[in-house]
Structures are given as structure tokens and as C-alpha cells.
Amino acid sequence: MEETEKELTSKVNINVQSLSDLERAIYLDYGPEGVMIFRMANKEMTIEEMTKELGIDEKKVEDIIEKMKGRYIYVEEKEEQKHIEEVKEKEKIYIDVPKKAPLDNISSVALVSELTLKFGPTAKKIYEMIDGKLDVIEIAASNLIGLAYVDNLMWFLAEKRAATFIRLDENDIKRKYGSIGLKIFNQYGREGLFLYLLLDKTADPIAALKYSELEPGIGVEAMDYILKVIDAPITFNKKDALTILKR
Question: What residues does each domain of the chain span?
Fold first, then answer.
């Protein structure tokens, strides 16, 4: 796990709202430069070309690529040249634990006001819950709101430099959610684990699916898998569930 301070450069201009879920995760870990490097890697640009395009030194580009290997990109390098031959996106979005950045009282009050105006009254409650221990899926599940809302709130805090984020790796997830939680995560990512928490909170598969705001087809398959993994004594008909969710 690591916290990465993001430093904007004159040649990097990223619209956070336009980023995909994968790119937003990269943004939180490696800043705007990380997103640009990820995109350039997909275009098979050399490190030298990336350096010129971004206006940052080659060492920083190399460091970011090295940290992204195996997590966000797959890289095969020929010894005779620093060239990215192949990049494979990893669709799984990992789980972040937000931590408040130090703010003075005036700045904190102003931030809460801005959060409330932009995201509604729930935003204030969520901001107050941030303690460096609760992860984003716990925060979303405890408030019975979708991950998209919490994600957008976290991106906003990241842009305001009001929060930093720690990424949970698979060992952390196993320690926190047990072997069953890790199994669900490995099969359906953080969305599956989120659904698992919602099921625990509601004790109702259909209610959990509705609160999750997941696409019905994906959500129903994930719920069916979860119920089988935990051996829940609950009757769950996928066809009936889909009919209810699509009403």
C-alpha cells in the first residue's frame, strides 16, 4: 500500500469527471501523470516520447511505470530499448481507504458547505465518517447508497486535496473480510464485496441489489454467486430477481 502525492505539471490537464473507473483509480494512486502514462502506454509510446509529451523527467516516468506494472498495466520490455510492447487493462477496481488531510477550521467549514451544496446532506455525514479505517465500500454500504456517489465524492475530495487514499491489497482484504470476502472480491471485484456488505445489512437479496445500483444482469449473477459461497438458506431465483429489478 502506498499514498502518492499528486503534482500537477504545466503539460498535464486532466478532467477528472471524464475519467473511466479504471483511470480514476489510477488518478488517486499516481495523479494526472499516471493517467496520461497509462493512456500513452496503450498507444505504445516510448518512455522518451512520454517524457517529451508530459514535460517531466524520464526518471519520474520510469518510476510511475514500474509502480503500475502488474496492477494497471502489463509490460514487456526489450533490453535494447525502453518500449512498452503490450498493455492489458486490469478491469478490477481495488478498494481504497480515505483519510482526511489536515485542514484548519475555516477551510473545513467551507469544505463541508461546498460538499453539501454539490452532493446533498449525505455528503456531510460521509465526510465525518472518514477516519482512515473505513474503506469506500463500508462507507457506501452503511449509508445504503451506490458506489458511484461515494466515488464522485472521493474524487472531489482528492481534487481539493482534502483527502488521501490508501489502497487495500489482497492480503488486507483477506484480513478485513476473511477468506469468503476475498473469494467474492476475486470473482466480482469491489462491487461483489459491496453487494456482500449490503446483503449483510439488509438480509434481503433484492433490497441489497436495489441499493447497490449495479446493472441488474451483473448484480443478479453476483448475488447468486455470493449466496452460494456463504451457503445462505435463502431462496433466490435469478429470473424473478431480474424481472423485479427491471420494473
Answer: 1-91, 95-168, 170-245
Note the pLDDT tens digit of each residue in 97-148. Answer: 999 999 888 788 999 999 999 999 999 999 999 999 999 999 999 999 999 9
pTM for this structure?
Answer: 0.65
How many helices and strands in the chain, by DSSP H and E? 11, 2
Cα(180)–Cα(227) distance, integer angstroms: 11
Euclidean distance between the first and the last CA atom of the chain, given in angstroms as a whole number:
42
Contacts of 44 (CB under 8 A, 6+ apart): 83, 84, 85, 87
Report the alpha-carbon distance of residue 217 to residue 223 in Å, rounded: 10
Rounded Cα–Cα distance for residues 137 and 195 (Å): 9
From the options 1.25.40, 3.30.110, 1.10.860, 1.10.10, give the CATH code of 95-168.
1.10.10
Q: Which residue has the cell 456463504?
A: 230
Instruction: Collapse the DSSP code of 239 into the 3-class scheme (helix H, G, I; strand E, B; otherwise coil) and give the result.
Output: helix
